[in-house]
Amino acid sequence: MDTQVVSFALSGKRAFFFLVRNLDARKEKNYATKTQLTRRALQKERSEPMDNERDTKALSVSRAESGQKLLNFLQRRVNAPASDFHRWIRTGQVRVNGARAKAFDRLNEGDLIRIPPFAERLPAGSGETLRNEDAAGKKRSRLPIVFEDEDILVLAKPAGLPSQGGTGHRESVASILAEERAGAAFVPAPAHRLDKDTSGLLAAGKTYAALRLLTDALAGRGERRPRKEYLAWVEGLWPRAGTVELKDILAKDERERRVKTLVSDSDRAEAKEARCEVTRLESRSVHGRTRTLLLIRLLTGRTHQIRVQLSSRGHPIVGDPRYGDGASREGLKLHAFRLSIPLPGGRVRDFELLPPWKGAWRYAPEDKPVSHD
Q1: Euclidean distance between CA atoms 159 and 157, whole angstroms
Q2: Are 154 and 299 in the same domain?
Q3: Catalytic residue check, 195
């Protein structure tokens, strides 16, 4: 390659050469790209399928892990920083079924993942550890279970426990699941959130495919939006009988750490429409004040949506420290009552959980049945 020395300088024992290539940059870039593509094609042709019987050092993708990206799989099964994973994948030290792969390639059940021999593997259980009643050291879960099969887990989240970890929270639903089911091939994870002080139904995925299905559906990205209904005691007498739809434009106020209603969505770029259906069930006097029990069906899922929409109409939820009259010793009277979710295989399952409210707050559907559309 022809070059021209532009300048030479000597400082101590170091020499600096500034070279100028007399090649067309565009031609060189195209040549490099073609070479790289040719090399990859040859590597793919020469790569031999891995022998499932002989290659006992490879990591096998279980049913629960199927659908994950290669990088996510490695992060769960190998003790190493992400930078190492990227380097191993880039240099071919990690292979899928004997062939090179990319960090974000999806894995299937039965795939064999070859990793460097010096890599520290993390243990992966069968996923049935906690379901075996005779397992040594088995403890009763701290999370009440409403339903469980091989794909999903539906919990009765108690008020006061966050769904996910965060600043100031020692534990959460996610951390308890990770602790109690550490031996599972795929550690169950919540597919949606409930506010810390809200009780009720919370769904978690026990496999990656199930978690992704639930997450997309509950976020409104699925073919059909799941039915989510809440019960709430609000201050005062709700003025409308029957079912009424509430529509608002909501936006977060980061300075005040609150969600507010806006006149129009043009007032703020991140403003979003919030919709729900509210049905008055009954009203009664509790502790000398009139309170109304409402059934709320969410049509959208925004942060603090129910609390903000009811409070903006002069009927905050009882015990709401942020949008109401302040915290109550009896807690926030908001409960995730019904949940209809899609399951793997095209099934749909409905769940219902009565609130844990006692005394004057008790909800007895057998006395006052809830009507559905």
Answers
A1: 7
A2: yes
A3: yes
104 in a domain, yes or no? yes
So what's the pLDDT on residue 367? 52
Is 57 in contact with 117 (CB distance < 8 Å)? yes
Domain tally for the chain? 3
Give the residue carrying structure tokens 């532009």. Answer: 6
Annotated catalytic residue, options 195, 197, 248, 320: 195
Phi, psi of 72 (to 5 degrees): -65, -40
Q: Same structural domain for residues 154 and 283?
A: yes
- CATH classification at residue 194: 3.30.2350.10
My answer on whether 87 and 34 are in the same domain is no
What value does the CA radius of gyration of the chain take, rounded to a whole number of Å? 28
- The region of weakest confidence among 65-74, 164-173, 316-325, 356-365 is 164-173
More confident call, 126 vs 89: 89
Q: What is the DSSP string of 220-287?
A: T-SSSPPEEEEEEEEES-----SEEEEEEEEEEETTTTEEEEES-GGG-TT-EEEEEEEEEEEEEEET
Does the structure show a pLDDT above 50 at 83? yes
Contact 222, 344 (CB under 8 A): no
229 and 102 share one domain: no
**DSSP 8-state secondary structure symbol assigned to residue 320:** -
What 322-326 contacts at long range (C-beta under 8 Å, 24+ apart), as own/partner pairs, is 322/258, 323/258, 324/235, 325/235
Q: 248: domain range?
A: 145-361
How far apart CA 203 and CA 155 sit, in angstroms, is 6
Q: What is the pLDDT of residues 347-357, one digit of tens each?
A: 899 999 999 99
- Which of 221, 231, 187, 227 lies closest to 206, judged by CA? 187
Domain-located, residue 137: no
Bridge partners (DSSP) listed for residue 203: 154
Same domain, 154 and 284: yes
| Residue 245, both tokens | 């739809």
